[in-house]
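Researcher: We're teaching a course module on how sequence relates to structure. For the next exercise, students receive a sequence and then see the predicted structure as tokens, so they can try to spot secondary structure elements on their own. Here is the exercise chain.
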Amino acid sequence: MIKNPLVLRRVSSSSLIFRMNKFKKLFSYPIVFFLLTATSFAFEHIESKVNFVEYEPKVIQNNLHKKKPFFLLFSAEWCHWCHIFNEETLTDEEVYTYLNENFVSVFIDADINNVAYKQYKAQGVPYTVFLNPDSSIYFKYSGTLYAEQFLEVIRDVNQSIKRGISLNQEEKEAFEYDAPIKFSKKTIVNFREAFIEGVIDNFDQKEYGIGKREKTILPETFNYLFKTTKAKDRSDSIYFISATLKKAIDKIYDPIEGGFFRYAETADWEVPHFEKIANLNAGNVLLLYKVNQVKPDPILKKAADHTLKYLSKTLYDSKIGSFLSFQQADTSYYYLKKHRRENVEQPLVIDKIFTDNLAATLIYLLEVLDIIKNRSLEKKVLSSTDFLADMILNNESLFHYYSIQKKDWYGESGLSDYALLAKLFQQAFTKYRFERYQKAASKVLRISLKQYYDSEKNIFIDPQLDAKDYEYLMGINADFALAIMAESKNNLGKINKMVEPLIGYFSGLEELLEERIWDGKDWDLLERYALFLSAAETYLDFKMNQQN
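Model: And here is the predicted structure for the students to work with:
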């Protein structure tokens, strides 16, 4: 689905803007919004008439001999527009016939194969990547195209590749980064000022939220502003965050069953993207309670209480004893009144629990329990934490997701799983002092240091991913820094040895921040910078306390 000329509709945390003469005609279709009545989609591509090859790490290498371009489709089971693309585009005879004759088509579950998702620097789902026959990237985009438009794209891609035409896709020049040789508090202070200024400058004074395009709540960013800004900036931040939350409650919140939808497709918040995601809702709950503490408002508290009820009821499996991860979108369902919803099935809750999503959800909810007393919630949080601890303590390796249907763990964990688990268990141990949480945290950190720690750079790096993806690594290492500080709070030497170089390595990214932040479009970017700055300031506070 294309919103306007040369701009592909963003379906997740970011969008790509293409200014290419060759493809200009392909991305100039008008805005179209649909209210769909059919919502029971088959996610599995097995029955697709596209001859998809199932993704595995060597899938590209194993198919190079075919000397065809590759069509990589990143999708997610909870993603509404992924299902639309499957139902409306890939079922078209001309489309699947052309793909089968001219491409090697690879289906990639973005949640299960999250390393591949990061390898190709995918942005949202559905996400399409076209590779040359030698596996180099030719063209990629985020969003949904319908059959006619998509057929035009794949024909042009194939014909251009055959003619040896190189697509001059506008990409940002690689950022050349030299990490600071020595840690400096001043760089952190400058970093903080640049971030706060950038975010505040991107406040939408009319419609609220960040930027002038798609809108959502940014828990890490808003929490950071909330606790860091001072004087007029703090007053402005509190007002703006409160107004944004009220706007979100009015526009992307389910007043009947509770819970926030993933985001709004328009700057005025009028077109919700109806998926509900556990960790985002948990982060929103935390933010609502924090703002309500400073600026009491019954609207905020009601939404927080109601969303907690949604998480505890709809996104919690009492048989397993764990929070779940995703609930699918259903545009027709969420437009129904309460009495009409009672006669139809709820949108499907995905029957997989993803390690990183659950860990992030619990990190937020543990902090919620510092604000409110809720024994029922606490039991569910502890049960879910135990669920992850059992996986870690009872196995030699970590897993990426749990299949409720198959009642077992699957998938190789990636760097983000390790970082969030380390942070979660240290936070849980600090709060409850349960020995098994300490053991789980120690095991996660031990494996992380062995598999991912770069002793030359003194940071955690996934060898399968781009070591120059500084912003992604910055967020990951921020989580590790917080975990290490929690584990070693009485060991100044260890913290100085590990955390200071880790924080210092990313403290020089102010220049990259200033290049990227002014659009206010990339939510993941803002959230990662906020997370890093929170970790950096935690470390500065730690050093100050130790010196005193």
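Model: If you want an answer key for the exercise: DSSP finds 20 helices and 18 strands in the chain. Confidence is low (pLDDT under 50) at residues 1-42.
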